[in-house]
Amino acid sequence: MTETKQGTATLTVDGKTIELPVLGGSVGPAVIDVRKLYAQTGHFTFDPGFTSTAACESDITYIDGDAGQLLYRGYSIDELAEKSHFLEVCYLLLYGELPDEAQMKEFEGHVTNHTMLHEQMTNFYRGFRRDAHPMAIMVGVVGALAAFYHDSTDINDEMQREIASIRMVAKMPTIAAWAYKYSIGQPFVYPRNDLDYAANFMHMCFSVPCEEYKVDPIMARAMDRIMTLHADHEQNASTSTVRLAGSSDANPFACIAAGIACLWGPAHGGANEACLNMLREIGTPDRIPEYIARAKDKNDPFRLMGFGHRVYKNYDPRAKVMQETAREVLELVGVENSPILQVAQELERIALEDPYFVERKLYPNVDFYSGIVLNAMGFPTSMFTAIFAMSRTVGWIGQWKEMISDPNQRIGRPRQLYTGANERAYVDVAKR
Ligand code: CMC
C-alpha cells in the first residue's frame, strides 16, 4: 500500500476544530482520511451512493472519468484490447505485471486444467426450471461451488485462495455456457482444452454432439475483446459487494456469487440486456425522438439504457472499442446495415447533440454496443449479463485477494443517519 500524507484538512464542527489527514495515491483525487472522525467529534460522514467516498486503497484499476480513461495496472484499455488477450489481462489483474512467456504458459496451463465442473453439478443444474434466467442459475451455481470444492474455502490459507481464484476464472465459462445449454434443452458440452479461453466458451455454447462446430477466429477475437473490456472496473457496485461480502471472511465462492447478484440489476450489468431490448422496441430511427423525450421526462421512469455513468463524464473508452467490434462482427455476419445498429448510431448522434444529455455529461457506456455485438454473435439477450459476469469474475477475484491481504482490512460496517421513531413503549394490540 503506497498512500502518502499530503497535508491536512481542518474541520470545525459544533465549535470544535480538528485536523484530518489528506492522503494522496499515485494519481487521481486525494482523500480526506475520516477514520477518526467519529471518535473525535461524535459525527459520521453522510454519503448515500458513495459519490464522494473512497472505500479502500487499491492498485489494480484506475479510471479518470473526465478524460474517459481506463487503466488496468497502468495499461490503457485501448492498448490491451488491441494488443493483449483476455488470459494475459487476467494474469495482469491478478498478479500486477504482464507475464513473460514462461509465466503465461504456466498460468494458461493452470486455468486450462480447471475448466471442468464436478460431474455432480450437472444434477444441480437439472434442479432449475428450463426457463430460469441464466443469471439466476449463475448466482446459485457459483455459490454452490463452495459445497463442491471444500479444499479451497479457507481464506487464511494463501494457497487455497490461489486455487479458488484459478478455479473460478477457469470454470466460469463452463458455468455460463451450461446455463445457456440448459435453457435451450441441449446437452451440456464439455470444455475443450485445445481451444483458447474465448473460443472454448463459444464452443461450449454453440456446438452440439451431432455435428462439427468450428469457432470463427473473428468471433473468438470479438469475444476475447468483450471479456477484456469487462474484466475490471474499479470499485463499482458489484465489486464493492464482493469486497463487503468478503470483509466478513466469507468464502470466495460466496463472495463472487454476491457480486453476480449485484451485477444482475439493470442499472449495472443488466443494462446490456435492457439496452438491446430498448433498441428493438424503438425499431426505426423515426421513433427516436419519442424515446429521447421520455428519457428527459422526470415523470417517466424510462432512462436511455447504455447511457450515462457514475464515473465517466466523457465517452466511456470501452464503448469506443465496442463500437469498432460491433462493426467487425456485423460485417462478418453480413448485416453491417442492421436496423438495430442504425437505430443505435442515430440515437447516439441525437442524444449527444441534445442539451439534456450534454449538460449532464451523459455519453454511451460499454453496454450501449455490447448487446448488438453479442446478439450478432448468436447469443440471446438473457445471456448478455451472464457473459459480463463471466468476464468480470477475474476483476472481482483480484479485488477480493487484494482486500484479504490488506493489513488495514476490517469488516465493512457502514453507519446511518437514523430518522425513525425514538424509543417508545410497546402498546398492547387491543389498545392500538
Ligand atoms: N437517461 C436519462 N437520464 C439520465 C440517464 C439516462 N440513461 N442517466 C442519468 N440521467 C440523468 C438523471 O436523471 C439525473 O438527472 P437530474 O440531474 O436532472 O436529476 C442525472 O442524469 C444524473 O443521474 P444520476 O442517476 O444521479 O447518476 P448516477 O451516477 O446515480 O447513475 C447510472 C449512473 C449508470 C445508474 C445512470 O446513468 C443510468 O441509470 N444509466 C442507464 C443504465 C446503464 O446504462 N447502466 C450501465 C452502466 S455502465 C456498465 C456498468 O458499470 O454496469
Task: Tell me the layout of helices and strands.
Elements: E1 4-13, E2 16-24, E3 31-32, H1 37-41, E4 61-64, E5 69-72, E6 75-76, H2 77-83, H3 86-95, H4 101-112, H5 121-126, H6 134-148, H7 158-183, H8 197-206, H9 217-230, H10 237-246, H11 252-263, H12 271-282, H13 288-296, H14 317-332, H15 339-353, H16 355-359, H17 366-376, H18 384-404
Helix pairs in contact: 3-18, 6-7, 6-11, 7-8, 7-18, 8-9, 9-14, 9-17, 9-18, 10-11, 10-18, 11-18, 12-17, 14-17
The structure holds carboxymethyl coenzyme *A.
Carboxymethyl coenzyme *A (CMC) binds at residues 233, 236, 267-269, 271, 295, 303-310, 360, 362, 365-367.
Task: Describe this entry's structure for a reader.
The protein is mostly helical and about 425 residues long. It contains 18 helices and 6 strands. Strands 1-2-3 form a 3-stranded antiparallel beta sheet. A 3-stranded antiparallel beta sheet has the order 4-5-6. Strand 1 and strand 2 form a beta hairpin. Helix 9 runs antiparallel to helix 14 and helix 14 runs parallel beside helix 17. The mean pLDDT is about 95. Bound molecules: carboxymethyl coenzyme *A. The site of carboxymethyl coenzyme *A has 20 residues, from helix 17.
